[in-house]
Every structure is written in structure tokens, then in C-alpha cells.
Amino acid sequence: MVAAEDAGRQSDIAGKLGVEPSMVVQEIGWDEDVDETVRDAVEERVGDDLLDEDADDVVDLVLMWWREGDGDLVDALVDAIGPLADNGVIWVLTPKTGRPGHVEPSEIAEAAPTAGLSQTSNVTVSDGWAGSRLVAPKAAKSKR
Asked: pTM score > 0.85 for this model?
């Protein structure tokens, strides 16, 4: 029964992130501290492996694992926008408050508009990680 409960939880994680079957998902910032349950849930929902940072494909969703000390968030977001589809989403996943590598929410709120993105929501993705959903503003999309 534990496996069924885990599977249900994984589906909920992918649902929270707006992951749909057949989406192309790129993962940026993987390290040994990432939550494998989140990764597994996303891969299960899309039915494929996550693309790594070097992939050239157009992507529907980016999972960006981001920690304090990882560098300049604006630069990382600008790089992540490159392969993003017009209606694509970037999820910045950060360690929760009190955990090593925690990033203040204000840092994401300030970096998003500088990179040309809007922050639309925040979710808890696991016991250790929180997510901030970033998208290109509607006005910018219509000008493309």
C-alpha cells in the first residue's frame, strides 16, 4: 500500500507544477540535494526523461533547482528563457526556510521582472523545497 500512496503523492506534485503528459521538461541545477520524488513525479507524468541543461530542444517547462550561492539568478533565468516555448513556464525550486541554500523569496521577486518574467504563484513541492512559477508576461507574448 505504501507504493500506491507514494504514487498518489507524486501525481499531486506534478499536478501542482502544471505538468501534462508529453510535455518537454528541462532540468537546470541538478545536484545531489534535489528531491528525487519531485523529479520522478514529473518524469512519470510526461512519460520521458528530463532534459539536461545542455539540451537544445524547445521546452514547455523548466525545473530550475536554485540555491543561495548558485550565482546570478537573473542570468540563469535569461538563459532558461532561451529554449522556452511561447506558453512555457519556469519553476524556480529553492530550499525551504531554515534549510541549507535557502533563497529569500524577495530575491526571486526582484530577479523575475529583470529577466522579463512575471511571478504568478508559489507552491510547496516537497518537505524540503518550495517553487515559484515564472512566465513571460502576456503583453510580451503578443508582441512576438
From this structure: yes
